[in-house]
Amino acid sequence: MSRKKLPRFEHNRVSPNVLEPGKELYETIKGNWRERYFLNSNPIVIEIGCGRGEYTVGLARHYPHLNFIGIDRKGDRIAQGSKQALNEGLTNVAFLRTDVFKLLDFFGKQEVNEIWITFPDPQPRISQVKNRLTDPRYLTLYREILAHEGILHLKTDHDDFFDFSVQTLPTNGFSDLITTRDLYASEMNHLHLGIKTKYEEIFTRKGFSIKYLKCKKAGY
Question: Which positions are annotated as binding S-adenosyl-L-methionine (predicted)?
């Protein structure tokens, strides 16, 4: 194990804004995020695969009236976002250490108002398509936890993954897609708020255009 990871894991163990195995809230938070963690009734926004938490923390700065939860299975990654949020005194941020396919273990039905997926692994090989975060099996989970007409956002640099997502969302319970293949050159440019993840910085420096889509959970 890397020496850098040990202090990050220790940070997570004692940090009040990290929920991970071994902590009481980790086992009991489902359906109770507002009452037991945020202590308010504000809307909940989650970022799936949040990595180092740049987007989760960045959004929390801009929207203090919303509650944000960054989700990632890598503890050494979320420790960095946790530290940043604590250093800035952001009380509307939490980090959850778990796998995406376990979302229903931590969120009640319609508990979440918005989902962000920012620069996930595009899983480019044919054998990997089922692992894409907009594969129908994941979209079923998102629909379960999203409130009526809850919003899903996606940002990626990868053309094939973006096209796949544009095709799968309307046939799996999401509607009113708004898309752009070049966010920074579009009229939706304001939506990025100046927030960039590590990978977004890398891709934009290399000249890749950033694809973005927004849609909502369709009615039953």
Answer: 47, 72, 99, 121
CB 174 within 8 A of CB 217: yes
Q: Which tens digits make up the pLDDT trace of 59-85? A: 999 999 999 999 999 888 999 999 999
Q: Which two tokens stand for residue 24?
A: 């009481």
Amino acid at 177: L
Binding site listing for substrate: 157, 197-200
* 159 noted as active-site residue: no
Q: pTM value?
A: 0.94
The total of structural domains in the chain comes to 1
Phi, psi of 177 (to 5 degrees): -65, 135
Query: How far apart, in Å, are the Cα atoms of 65 and each of 41, 90, 117?
Result: 10, 11, 21
- Phi/psi of residue 95, nearest 5 degrees: -130, 135
- Token digits of residue 30: 């489902």
Question: Residue positions in the annotated binding site for S-adenosyl-L-methionine?
Answer: 47, 72, 99, 121
Q: Which candidate in 105, 121, 163, 182 is catalytic?
A: 121
Residue 197 belongs to domain spanning: 5-217
